[in-house]
């Protein structure tokens, strides 16, 4: 995909002088200019967005980030902050004209501290999520953010996109896990808001301006994150259900029966499972008979108890009697639980082997998930006969990855050329159900042109006013989120 960057840039001499100043700050290893060195930073993993840049800067401290941003502000050079580059909407990729400098936070990867009594950890933006999870685990604490890219994605990117994942139902989005931030502003000043307080009513809560802002208002360099007690027992179940409506009713019953101990609740269609069984080695079919829909759920408790498992089993028994479930298996070990969760991971991998796949990361109120799936499947089938919907995802919080594989035998390029058209069909259903066209992946370049449509004039004016106030020159991640 190509599109024009709205940002301007200085002449070659001014750019060269700025890069010399930046090199003096970050050192030769902190400035990449060779095409082969920059290549990994200029394309997102799906390959939908590819850009160009005169340089990739890799500062190693907040002070270096601030100094680089100040130089760029003085020279009028736009910048693109980048974390683990796992974005699915092009938010971390520069435009094709090559006017923007990429600022990668990957070298800022220190865990500054863990306070076990306050249940917090302070980490730099470049810390990989898996590393942060393990550091918390070493202190017998839980960092509950968990998603498929956790071995690559970085804390700064997760904050800047307000990432979700499988545990949102129990612990919330990234916004709910952040207590404090350190941010480099558009003029190079550093705002130190690294507070670890749960209560602080002294004016505007500034951190929320930068969470989910995709680097358009400031560059997150560090954060204070909430930790939780580690669960001592987890019950993982794979359940056959007759319909999405039955799954939603089952969710409500499990929440009530367990005292709201449901940590994750994932829905997937039979087609999703068949794709995974066909294409991803190690995928199992856990139940003896096929079902049109499945739920993968995990419930956790703070103590080890036979009574907790009995509660889960009793709730499932009642679901069978109410015809909300037709079959189920509960993992008997951690190994079996991992096998069940591998199915969920394999679904994402398997779709690429079925030709072109048009992706939709959407959300609706949980009570309207079943209605959305029914209406959206009918709408896309009418627009593209033979299309193969593969809905799955975090239905416990209303987030459905409504992905659409091409009709069998279709021309992949021709099908993918209809991406915007097909997404518009899905979005029309979303708008009618008071949902969101971006549940957890962000807006980036991919969905920015929809913003004036989905936001009221007043809300859109407020968004632009914040951008103008915090980035008056428009140099922070220009052309992302706001058209």
TrEMBL record:
It comes from the Bacteria. Pfam families: FAD-oxidase_C, FAD_binding_4. Its cofactor is FAD. Signal peptide: none annotated. GO terms for biological process: respiratory electron transport chain. PANTHER family: BLL6224 PROTEIN, D-2-HYDROXYGLUTARATE DEHYDROGENASE, MITOCHONDRIAL. This is FAD-binding oxidoreductase. It comes from Azospirillum brasilense.
């Amino acid at each position: 995909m190509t599109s024009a960057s709205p940002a301007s840039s200085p002449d070659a001499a001014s750019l060269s002088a700025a890069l010399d100043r930046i090199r003096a700050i970050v050192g030769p290893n902190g400035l990449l200019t060779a095409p082969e060195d920059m290549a990994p930073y200029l394309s997102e993993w799906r390959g939908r967005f590819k850009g160009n840049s005169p340089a990739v800067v890799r500062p190693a401290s907040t002070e270096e980030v601030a100094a680089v941003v100040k130089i760029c502000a003085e020279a009028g050079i736009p910048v693109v902050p980048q974390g683990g580059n796992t974005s699915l909407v092009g938010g971390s990729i520069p435009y094709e004209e090559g006017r923007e400098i990429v600022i990668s936070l990957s070298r800022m990867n220190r865990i500054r501290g863990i306070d076990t009594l306050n249940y917090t950890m302070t980490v730099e933006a470049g810390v990989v999520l898996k590393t942060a999870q393990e550091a918390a685990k070493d202190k017998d604490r839980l960092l509950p953010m968990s998603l498929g890219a956790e071995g690559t994605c970085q804390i700064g990117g997760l904050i800047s996109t307000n990432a979700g994942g499988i545990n949102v139902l129990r612990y919330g989005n990234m916004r709910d896990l952040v207590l404090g931030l350190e941010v480099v502003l558009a003029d190079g000043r550093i705002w130190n808001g690294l507070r670890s307080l749960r209560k602080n009513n002294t004016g505007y809560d500034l951190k929320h301006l930068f969470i989910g802002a995709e680097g358009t208002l400031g560059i997150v360099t560090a954060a204070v994150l909430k930790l939780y007690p580690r669960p001592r027992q987890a019950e993982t179940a794979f359940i056959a259900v007759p319909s999405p409506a039955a799954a939603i009713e089952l969710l409500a019953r499990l929440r009530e029966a367990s005292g709201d101990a449901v940590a994750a609740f994932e829905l997937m269609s039979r087609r999703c499972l068949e794709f995974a069984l066909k294409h991803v080695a190690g995928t199992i079919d856990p139940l003896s008979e096929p079902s049109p829909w499945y739920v993968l759920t995990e419930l956790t408790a703070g103590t080890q108890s036979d009574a907790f498992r009995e509660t889960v089993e009793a709730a499932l028994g009642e679901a069978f009697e109410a015809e909300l479930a037709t079959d189920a298996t509960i993992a008997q070990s951690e190994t079996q639980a991992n096998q069940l969760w591998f199915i969920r991971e394999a679904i994402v991998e398997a779709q690429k082997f079925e030709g072109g796949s048009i992706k939709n990361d959407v959300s609706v109120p949980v009570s309207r998930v079943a209605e959305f799936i029914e209406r959206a499947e009918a709408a896309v089938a009418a627009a593209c006969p033979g299309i193969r919907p593969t809905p799955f995802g975090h239905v416990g919080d209303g987030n459905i990855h409504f992905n659409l594989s091409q009709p069998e035998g279709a021309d992949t390029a021709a099908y993918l050329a209809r991406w915007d058209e097909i997404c518009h069909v899905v979005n029309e259903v979303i708008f009618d159900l008071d949902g969101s066209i971006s549940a957890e992946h962000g807006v980036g370049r991919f969905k920015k042109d929809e913003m004036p449509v989905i936001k009221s004039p007043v809300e859109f004016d407020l968004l632009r006013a914040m951008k103008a106030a915090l980035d008056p020159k428009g140099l922070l991640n220009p052309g992302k989120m706001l058209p």
